Amino acid sequence: MERITVLGATGSIGVSTLDVLARHPERYQVYALTASTSWQQLAEQVRAHRPRFAVLSDATAAQALREALADADCDTEVLAGEQALVDVAAAGEVDTVMAAIVGAAGLLPTFAAVESGKKVLLANKEVLVMAGGLFMAEARRSGAQILPIDSEHNAIFQCLPLQKALAAGCELAELGVRKILLTASGGPFRSTPVAELAGVTPVQACAHPNWDMGQKISVDSATMMNKGLELIEACWLFNCTPDDIEVLIHPQSVIHSMVEYVDGSVLAQLGNPDMRTPIAHALGWPERVASGVPALDMVAAARLDFSAPDYERFPCLLLAEQAASMGLTAPAVLNAANEVAVAAFLQGDLAFTDIAEVNKRVLLAAQLTEPVDLDVVQLADAKARQHARRLIDAGLV
Ligand code: NAD
Ligand code: MG
């Protein structure tokens, strides 16, 4: 039995993960489930999966969960706080950790899983954007296997030769790879007139045409900051630079990304837009396990379109490319500013187009340093958040 901790169990990725796990009770056992405040949903999940631990980062919510489970026929222990998240990620009994907390909040628990040499299924892209060098170095030291859950990165992983998967750290060129083609749907505003973007609402921004996801990543998909974060994520996961990656708009989200080789071959991974496929791939790897995703109907899909991204429409994509080239703490700064700006947009305190403006101002003003450890990264993150909040609160954008 493989024992699994699901960090962010109540989110979109967490729910899909539990769906796949429930299809293979002979293979996987849930060790811990975690969330921030959603104790009612976590209570349902605890009743269904009977983990050893349930963790809420919020202490009041944890108390409510304890009371809700008092009459339940299970001996799940309820814990609270960030240290408990770290503990269930690093526990000796755990084989595999699904890292599916959204944003910088996942930094310490996800790092703890890597540090303790787990098989880490990585959905929480923000932590690689913040501290990719530290994560990859720590994985090499501890022997942790990081398997990408982000559909594009999972597709690239599947299209790369096995030796790349087994010996992370070798150069793409040594494997005959010419470039990575990172596909993007273009989100809900791919063809909205640019002049109308300033007035779009959170509801419109979260209505992704192909994927059903959490609010933060949905807004990131609408600004294409998501693709920018994914570009940085890919550089770390596949040991390459932004020059090795071409972003390609593919509105149908049937191809999840591609790898082009020097002989002219282009390998693609296709599938329905359902995160249970990459989750099942990473859970089972190197074997294959059923995911519950219906077979792709190629006749119904009928056509696949491609175009180049438009930087005027999607300035956040350009900013992420710039942050990737700037290196140092620039990606951590950009990520922090973006988390604050997206939260403000979702609360109705910031116009959609001002997300990019906040991000740009914070990135360009930041004093960048070498991210030698997590403290440096967290300091850069905190300062960038302060700056972004100042700009938004003072109405400076
Ligand atoms: P979500 O908002 O649906 O869920 C987030 C989860 O994290 C919830 O369980 C929540 O309780 C927990 N969480 C939030 N803040 C927390 C905090 N401060 N402390 C502890 N836990 C906290 O998000 P999601 O869409 O499932 O995305 C999760 C991650 O996966 C993100 O990094 C996202 O970029 C990535 N991802 C998601 C998808 C998708 O299809 N949803 C696809 C690719 C990558
Ligand atoms: Mg993705």
Automatic annotation (TrEMBL):
Gene Ontology MF annotations: 1-deoxy-D-xylulose-5-phosphate reductoisomerase activity
Keywords attached to this entry: Isoprene biosynthesis, Magnesium, Manganese, Metal-binding, NADP, Oxidoreductase
Cofactor: Mg(2+); Mn(2+)
Binding site for 1-deoxy-D-xylulose 5-phosphate: 125, 151-152, 185, 208, 221, 226-227, 230
Binding residue positions for Mn(2+): 150, 152, 230
Signal peptide range: none
Keyword Nucleotidyltransferase: no
A family per Pfam: DXP_reductoisom
NCBIfam families: Dxr, PRK05447.1-1, PRK12464.1
Function of the protein: Catalyzes the NADPH-dependent rearrangement and reduction of 1-deoxy-D-xylulose-5-phosphate (DXP) to 2-C-methyl-D-erythritol 4-phosphate (MEP).
The name this protein goes by in its record: 1-deoxy-D-xylulose 5-phosphate reductoisomerase
Organism the protein comes from: Gilvimarinus japonicus
